[in-house]
């Protein structure tokens, strides 16, 4: 038996596909998922309940297609050709025309649950709990093997060295995912109420197709998030992805990385702010002390000056009083040759009208006194 090469096999299959008339201008109905754009080209998966087929809308055809119809979850009818790729041993469906075929099953279920929960009031702002400003412990409900959990840990530890992280390994995709998510939300709340306080929960996963994210559109998951006593940040997929969890959670984050960033405060920046405030406070106190010291010194100088003036004025008054006292001291007057005359009762005789001839009077001089009798009284 003579073997053939892999290339020969793939080229043969590719030729068969190209030559098959039934695979040209083929109309296929399915639901769009995994839509993405690369340069001028669009890539998507068309699926039904049994299988999927990879598709492409090349840039040369995109301008002929109503791209408003090309949306994840949309059920469409597409027309195109099978395009083999021999080198990769694969094929895709090159779309040349798109028309609406009704709402996709996933989107229909999404809208049904959304309308139901919204009517019950589960999305109302009044139920939204604020995120704690200084969480000491953050719970993360996601896969413990995905990139999302590593991104969350990296962001939190890079900006906060005080908050602990508890990872709840969770199935986030497939039939068992809703029960796993609900169970871990309930577990986190039981732990928090029993003493291991958890301040914030991040519930989510990284990006993926609508089928990958379907667990976060589950009604039971939405009700578990709503019932959580711990504030919940929903972080599902990328910025353009919306899930039921986003609407019912207390806060929606565009990505798991954004959730980690909003969950904790930057303790390193906080320390810098505290240090800056401490230095500003010290400077303010020092400035206040210096201002008060200068004011006290000014008032002390003023008080000293006033006291000095008062003392000087008092000294001058005393000196003037001493002069008056000295000038009016009888002894000084007596030293000038003057004498004081008193009658027999001891009263001063002020003038000659008080002198009676023949009466005796006491004459007080500087160095003593003597008694004299008035012989004759004469007036000047």
Describe it.
The protein is 41% helix and 24% strand. The relative contact order is 0.07. A five-stranded mixed beta barrel has the order 1-2-3-5-4. It has a five-stranded parallel beta sheet with strand order 7-6-8-9-10, with helices on both faces. A hairpin with a 4-residue loop joins strand 4 and strand 5. It is rod-shaped, with a radius of gyration of 54 Å. The protein starts with 5 loop residues before the first helix and ends in a 7-residue tail after the last strand. The longest helix is centred in the last third of the chain and has 62 residues. It has four domains: 98 residues, Nucleic acid-binding proteins (OB fold (Dihydrolipoamide Acetyltransferase, E2P), Beta Barrel), CATH 2.40.50; 157 residues, Rossmann fold (3-Layer(aba) Sandwich); 54 residues; 43 residues, no CATH class. It is built from ten helices and 13 strands. It has 380 residues and is of the alpha/beta class.
The CATH architecture category of the largest domain equals: 3-Layer(aba) Sandwich
Shape: rod-shaped
Helix count from the secondary structure assignment: 10
How would you sum up the major sheet?
Answer: 5 strands, mixed, barrel
CATH C-level class of the largest domain:
Alpha Beta
Strand content: 15-25%
The CATH homologous superfamily of the largest domain is named: Hypothetical protein af1403, domain 2
Unreliably modeled segments: none
SSE succession: HEEEHEEHEHEHEHEHEHHHEEE
- The fold-level CATH name of the largest domain is Rossmann fold
Radius of gyration: 54 Å
């Amino acid at each position: 038996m003579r073997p053939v090469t892999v290339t020969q096999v793939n080229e043969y299959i590719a030729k068969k596909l190209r030559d098959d008339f039934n695979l040209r201008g083929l109309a296929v109905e399915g639901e769009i998922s995994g839509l993405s754009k690369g340069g001028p080209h669009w890539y998507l998966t068309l699926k039904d309940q049994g299988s999927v087929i990879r598709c492409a809308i090349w840039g040369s055809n995109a301008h002929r297609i109503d791209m408003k119809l090309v949306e994840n979850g949309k059920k469409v009818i597409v027309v195109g050709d099978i395009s083999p790729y021999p080198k990769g041993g694969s094929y895709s469906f090159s779309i040349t025309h798109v028309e609406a075929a009704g709402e996709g099953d996933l989107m229909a279920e999404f809208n049904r649950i959304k309308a139901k929960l919204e009517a019950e009031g589960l999305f109302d702002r009044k139920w939204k709990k604020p995120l704690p400003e200084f969480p000491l412990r953050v719970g993360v409900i996601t896969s413990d093997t995905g990139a999302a959990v590593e991104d969350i840990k990296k962001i939190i530890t890079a900006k906060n060295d005080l908050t602990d992280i508890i990872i709840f390994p969770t199935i986030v995709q497939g039939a068992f995912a809703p029960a796993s998510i609900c169970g871990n939300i309930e577990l986190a709340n039981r732990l928090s109420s029993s003493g291991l306080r958890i301040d914030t929960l991040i519930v989510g996963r990284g990006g993926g197709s609508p089928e990958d994210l379907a667990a976060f559109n589950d009604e039971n998951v939405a009700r578990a998030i709503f019932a959580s006593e711990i504030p919940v940040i929903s972080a599902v997929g990328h910025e353009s992805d919306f899930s039921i969890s986003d609407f019912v959670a207390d806060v929606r984050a565009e990505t798991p990385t954004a959730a980690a960033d909003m969950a904790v405060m930057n303790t390193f920046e906080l320390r810098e702010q505290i240090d800056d405030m401490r230095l500003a406070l010290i400077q303010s106190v020092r400035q206040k002390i210096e201002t008060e010291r200068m004011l006290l010194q000014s008032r002390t100088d003023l008080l000293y000056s006033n006291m000095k003036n008062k003392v000087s004025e008092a000294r001058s008054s005393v000196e003037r009083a001493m002069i008056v006292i000295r000038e009016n001291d009888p002894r000084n007057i007596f030293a000038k040759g003057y004498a004081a005359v008193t009658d027999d009762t001891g009263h001063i005789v002020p003038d000659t009208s008080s002198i009676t001839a023949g009466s005796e009077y006491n004459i007080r001089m500087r160095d003593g006194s003597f008694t004299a009798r008035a012989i004759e009284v004469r007036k000047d």
